[in-house]
Amino acid sequence: MSKENFLFTSESVSEGHPDKVSDRVSDAVVDLFLAADPLSRVAVETLCTTNRMVLAGEVRGPETVTYEKMEKVARHAVRDIGYEQDGFHWNNMDVEVYVHAQSTDIAQGVDASGNKDEGAGDQGIMFGYACRETEVLMPAPIHYSHGILKELSLARHSGEVEGLGPDSKSQVTLRYEKGKPVCATSIVVSTQHDADLDQKAVKELVRPFVEKVLPEGWMCPENEFYVNPTGLFVIGGPDGDAGLTGRKIIVDTYGGAAPHGGGAFSGKDPSKVDRSAAYAARYLAKNIVAAELAEKCTIQLAYAIGVSKPLSVYVDTAGTGKIEEMTLSNILQEVMDLSPRGIREHLELSRPIYERSSAYGHFGRIPETDGGFSWEKESLVEALKAAV
Question: Is 86 a catalytic site residue?
Answer without folding.
Answer: no
